[in-house]
Design a protein that fits this description.
The chain is α/β, with parallel strands linked by helices. The chain has one domain: Leucine Aminopeptidase, subunit E, domain 1. It is globular. Helix 3 packs across helix 4. It starts with 10 loop residues before the first strand and ends with a helix. About 35% of the residues lie in helices and about 20% in strands. The chain contains 4 helices and 6 strands. The protein has a 6-stranded mixed sheet with strand order 1-6-5-2-4-3, sandwiched between helices.
C-alpha cells in the first residue's frame, strides 16, 4: 500500500503464502533454539527443506528479543530473519517482540535487504492480536529505510484489518 508521505510502497499488505513470497528475506518467528514458534515458521521450515534445516542449526540458545540471519535453503527468499519471540526463562510480551523486530530491521539494513516479507508476528503464539501485531510492525519498521515491508496475511478479512491500521499510522 502506498505510503502517503513518500509516495512509495514502504509497507504493503497482501494475502498469500509467506513461504512462497518473492522477497530478499522473510521474517520467521522462532524459539530460543531457532525452532518454529508460529505456524508461519513451520511452513517456512517445510518449504525450506533440509538445506534450510542445516542452516538454522543452533548450539547456543538465544534470548527472546534477538534476531539472526541465515540462508533460506529452498525458499524463494535467499535469506531468513529469525526473530526470537519466546524463550524458556521469561514471559515474552510486546516489548520483547518490539526488540526482536527492531533487531531484525537493523540486520536487514546491514545486509542491504530491499524487500522483507513477514507474517503478523506474535499472532500465531497468542502474544498479540492481529491489530496489535500490525501496529507493532508499522511502528518498528524504519521510516527512513530504503527497504520495503510486505506483511503477508492469510485471508481477505485479515488484509482489510491490517490495511486499515497501516493507513491510520502517521
Amino acid at each position: 500500500m502506498p505510503d502517503p508521505a513518500s509516495g512509495s510502497e514502504r509497507i504493503r499488505v497482501l494475502v498469500g503464502d509467506l513461504a512462497n513470497e518473492p522477497a530478499d528475506a522473510v521474517v520467521r518467528p522462532a524459539d530460543a533454539s531457532l525452532g518454529p514458534a508460529e505456524p508461519a515458521a513451520a511452513r517456512l521450515d517445510e518449504v525450506g527443506g533440509e538445506a534450510f534445516a542445516l542452516l538454522r542449526r543452533n548450539t547456543t540458545p538465544l534470548e527472546a528479543g534477538a534476531a539472526v540471519v541465515t540462508g533460506g535453503g529452498a525458499l524463494p527468499a535467499p535469506f531468513v530473519l529469525h526473530v526470537v519471540v519466546c524463550d524458556p526463562d521469561r514471559k515474552v510480551g510486546r516489548e520483547l517482540l518490539r526488540k526482536a523486530l527492531v533487531s531484525a530491521w537493523q540486520r536487514a539494513g546491514d545486509w542491504g535487504l530491499a524487500v522483507i516479507a513477514t507474517p503478523p508476528v506474535g499472532v500465531g503464539t497468542g502474544q498479540l492480536t492481529l491489530q496489535e501485531s500490525a501496529t507493532l510492525l508499522a511502528e518498528t519498521f524504519p521510516k527512513g529505510s530504503e527497504s520495503r515491508l510486505h506483511i503477508v496475511v492469510s485471508s481477505e478479512s485479515d488484509l482489510a484489518v491490517v490495511e486499515a491500521i497501516i493507513r491510520g499510522m502517521p
